[in-house]
Specification:
The protein is about 30% helix and about 30% strand. The protein is of the alpha/beta class. The longest helix has 15 residues. The protein is elongated, with a radius of gyration of 23 Å. Bound molecules: adenosine-5'-triphosphate (ATP). It is found in: Cell membrane.
């Protein structure tokens, strides 16, 4: 029996002439929280659908907790929150959560679920009267009703404002802290940066980058040092320690560096002055773009 929570081995999926997933090799260990990033059409949703047994791979092997996706779904060992997961209309939040619990062999207690998803105050509200954020919290409760070891979230916070998003991630982190595996697809880089142990970037349904947020930012030379040239030449800036890229816009220079301290020290050693110096935080979005370009 495999140790992996999730394993894709050379998985492909084609729809007619469209190759949505082109040989995906990816394993997730138990207890990991992994962000799946990629441009529109990169194959994130298709991969997630195969993981949940909603689509059959055209070729390759896929397993969840050592068994097939369908087996894991039936046993409540994998739960999911999908982008357009419909909610049964005309019933209350509490009734729908109770109903979901009855489907699974070892569900979480209904009260616990309502508390985990912050639904207690709206338990008697009808599901078709919920705000976008409340509906997402309900989808989250339904996703964890079977107490799954693997939780899959496809752009879970797309309909949420900043505050709801923050509260939602606190809840997810609490759930993941019990040794569960969480895989989430997102377009929000800061969400991946703040919440994932590991970031996997896919393009054409294949992994192009896989590492911790820090590793990915470092690999792309993710920090920037900016200053005003003030009449001085930019010759030699590309030779400063750590510098990977030199960009000059008007009178401003931006250096992308893997070693901010060494770069700044060398700058001061080689110039009389470094006006308007700014050190930019590592930017995951830039890093991912640089690595997928
Ligand atoms: N049922 C389908 N029939 C035909 N083509 C499909 C089907 N589902 C997906 N595709 C195509 O497969 C590719 C991958 O789509 P997918 O939805 O998996 O990407 P994604 O990374 O989830 O994109 P997004 O970020 O926009 O949600 C796209 O080119 C898409 O048009």
């Amino acid at each position: 029996m495999t140790q992996h929570a999730v394993s894709f081995q050379c998985v492909t999926k084609t729809f007619g002439s469209v190759r949505a997933v082109g040989g995906l090799d990816l394993t997730l260990d138990r207890g990991e929280t992994v962000a799946l990033l990629g441009a529109n059409g990169a194959g994130k949703s298709t991969s997630i659908s195969m993981l949940l047994g909603l689509l059959e791979p055209t070729a390759g092997q896929l397993s969840v907790l050592g068994g097939s996706p369908n087996q894991a779904v039936a046993e409540g060992r994998i739960g999911a929150m999908l982008q357009d997961g419909g909610l049964m209309p005309g019933v209350t939040v509490g009734a729908l959560v109770s109903l979901a619990c009855r489907i699974y062999p070892s569900p979480r207690p209904v009260k616990q679920l309502l508390a985990d998803a912050d639904l207690i105050s709206i338990a008697s509200r009808r599901t078709d009267r919920l705000s976008g954020g409340q509906a997402q919290r309900l989808r989250f409760a339904l996703a964890i009703a079977g107490n799954p070891q693997v939780l899959v979230l496809d752009e879970p916070t797309a309909a949420m404002d900043v505050e709801s998003r923050r509260a939602f991630w606190t809840t997810i982190r609490g759930y993941a802290a019990g040794g569960r595996t969480v895989l989430f697809a997102t377009h929000y880089m800061e969400e991946a940066d703040e919440n994932a142990d590991r970031i996997v970037v896919i393009a054409g349904g294949r992994v192009v980058t896989d590492g911790t947020p820090t590793e990915i930012k470092a690999a792309a030379g993710g920090r920037s040092v900016r200053f005003t040239l003030g009449g001085e030449s930019c010759a030699g800036l590309d030779l400063l320690p750590g510098v990977r890229v030199v960009e000059v816009h008007g009178g401003t220079v931006a250096l992308r560096t893997t070693d901010v301290e060494a770069t700044v020290r060398a700058l001061f050693a080689t110039r009389d002055q470094v006006p308007d110096l700014e050190v930019g935080g590592a930017d995951l979005e830039d890093a991912v773009l640089a690595l997928t370009r």
